[in-house]
Amino acid sequence: MSNPIKSDPQTVREHLRQLRDQLLHLHKTLVDSERIGYEQTIGQIGSPQQFLQLLAADPWFGWLHPLSELIVAIDTALDAKNPPPATALEDLVRGAYRLLVPSESSDDPANRGFASHYFEALQRDPDVVVAHAEVAKLRRTRPVSG
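Predicted structure:
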């Protein structure tokens, strides 16, 4: 369970930095898992450039975009010349944990594609389960309420 006491902005910022690192690892694990499935189903990916194009534009990988966008938003907040208020950082933390709720069928239309694909990835790939568990472990130490 999360700590219900709000922490100072620096503590929230440090938690967000740790979360970002775990999300990057999870993202890489999901990309690797999806690549294996893609190559087994569609065929070999010819080059790193082709793979990058597929990640950006192919519907097979499109469900990963919300996680990619979240990581970019976190990077932007952490690298900002003028740090955002703690509430904005807390919103990013909460958004990350809300996104990573797998579901066979999500009730949230905005999250339906990610949640169901994420559920499937967790069912088929133990590496995804381990990466998810690392994020969940970090969640238990989060310094924000909500």
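Summary: The chain has one domain: 9-139.
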